[in-house]
Amino acid sequence: MNHLAGLAAVAIDCADPPRLAQWWHGLLGGRFEVDFQGDAELHVDGFPRLDFLRVPDAKTTKNRLHLDLLSEDFDKAVEAALAHGATKANDVFDHEAWQVLRDIEGNEFCILRPRTD
Q1: Cα four-point dihedral sign 95, 99, 101, 107
Q2: Helix, strand, or coil here: 21?
Q3: Is the dihedral of CA 17, 111, 26, 47 positive or negative?
């Protein structure tokens, strides 16, 4: 099977691209830059590029696509995300298998427990 293309980036619609990129930069590290239009990119080793794009409409429902973050220490990773300003999204999923969180604009993401297999 021929592949059409490779994954270059994950685009995240948001109200304030520089602010949201800086928030994710604080959580994941890497480097971010803001372009002349006010959109932002975050480059983190081991990740596709994260593009933060300004859109006029507000987020109204659960994301159809979200980031799953791998952790080596689940409790510490969740604690760090909460201390950084994430909020728990137990209304989306409340179970010990992983933790659903929201970033500062309400976008869901998950922290996964380390794999045991």
Answers
A1: negative
A2: helix
A3: negative
CA distance 89 to 73: 20
Strands 94-95 and 98-102: antiparallel
Residues 74-83 pLDDT 10s:
999 999 999 9
User: Largest Cα–Cα distance of the chain, in whole Å?
Assistant: 46
The structure's pTM equals 0.89
Q: Which residue has the tokens 């081991």?
A: 46
Task: Summarize pLDDT for 55-106 with one digit per residue, the tens.
Answer: 999 888 888 899 999 999 999 999 999 999 999 999 998 888 899 999 999 9
* The pair of three-digit structure tokens given for residue 106, joined into one six-digit string: 């309400």
pLDDT of residue 25: 97
Tell me the chain's radius of gyration from C-alpha atoms. Answer: 15
Say if strands 87-88 and 94-95 run parallel, antiparallel, or are unpaired: unpaired
